[in-house]
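Ops channel
N.P.: pipeline sanity check, posting one input/output pair.
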């Protein structure tokens, strides 16, 4: 069974940094592209970053210049480095395939809370 497991969230002050991890239960190159999604309370889930099999990345305008995405194929893990965090980045962060996520791949996500 294919699973994606997110980790690395936490509580951080504005301006702080966190690095999220997404570990796959299969060879990460199985996925043409992985996406980082987030869902804030009362809001729809949104795609904030993608990283392709070839490590090309895209970012939502709201995080561009602050977030970077990377992957370690040997560890079957994708990462989201989040810098200069803002309160509006507070959300549960998930990874899934991109640009069309698969319902059965949604995991529990990892909570990111940015508060003074």
């Amino acid at each position: 069974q294919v699973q994606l497991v997110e980790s690395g969230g936490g509580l951080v002050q504005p301006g702080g940094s966190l690095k999220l991890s997404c570990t796959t239960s299969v060879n990460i190159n199985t996925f043409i592209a992985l996406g980082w999604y987030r869902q804030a309370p009362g809001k729809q889930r949104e795609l904030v970053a993608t990283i392709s099999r070839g490590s090309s990345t895209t970012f939502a305008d709201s995080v561009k210049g602050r977030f970077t995405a990377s992957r370690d194929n040997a560890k079957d893990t994708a990462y989201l480095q989040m810098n200069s965090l803002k309160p509006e980045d507070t959300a549960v962060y998930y990874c899934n395939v991109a640009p069309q996520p698969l319902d059965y791949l949604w995991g529990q996500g990892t909570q990111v809370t940015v508060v003074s």
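N.P.: looks fine end to end. The longest strand covers residues 18-24.
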